[in-house]
User: Fold this.
Amino acid sequence: MTAPLTVTGAAARRRRRPGPALWLAGSWLVLLALLALGAGVLPLAAPDAPVGGPNLPPFTAYPEVLGTDGIGRSVLSRLVHGARISLAVSLGATSLAAVAGGLLGVLAAYLRGVAESAIGVLLDAILAFPPLLLLLALAAVVRPGVWTLVASLGLLFVPPFARLAKAAALSRLNREYVDAARALGAGHGRLLFRELLPGCVAPVASYAVVMAALMIMMEGALSFLGVGIPPPAPSWGAMIAAGKDFLAIAPQLVLVPCAAMFLTVLSFNTVGERLRARVDTISGGAP
Assistant:
């Protein structure tokens, strides 16, 4: 009877070990973060200044190993500086949505009644607007920029985080440690921020990693449409939009930022799915 249990335990441990895909995804995200943070000190040309002839192919001149764009700017420099903008918008908007949505969800689960209904109406009102149309409308009213995108995307994705946090809080509301704290005379603040909120952090954080990938795609789509980061600031979406006019003679102008965006989104999804599976395993085994 002990051998099958031992094999099962070993198989479970193997499933919990990070696989090659997770290591590769994590390595790419770490490399991208280091490049984005060090973009200002790396030996790169200015991202908005021409450094050579237009549409130079890759590996024709050092250090412009990725060539130049349609007006002679360094593709490598714009790619690295664009990573800074994409990550700033993605992580900023995700953090805003996670914090605001998490607090609203926990409050709705704890207060119930009129407060829960009011929060539900607010979230439904946000969900009622088509996302792209809402972002386009905000871009038409407010000057586009990094902080505008962070606020707009963060507001747009508050409802999913709120619903996730509410579900997590409801599952913990009647557990023994919450009842014990209530019996000992704990106030509303302690019950909210010491008993309920910490239990919601893990599922919200694992979901936030996946949502960060979606934020990158949304920022790229808005910049591609010309309502995201205004030029000449580098952005992966703006690079794709500018490179599409030279697709026949210089396909690397589209392929390079597309590849960077694809790898980043895939890496965020890979890490997020692993964290979600880990959180589900821990929650399933929690008393």
Summary: Residues 1-8 have pLDDT under 50 and may be disordered. The longest helix spans residues 75-111. Residues 142 and 175 are 46 Å apart (CA to CA).
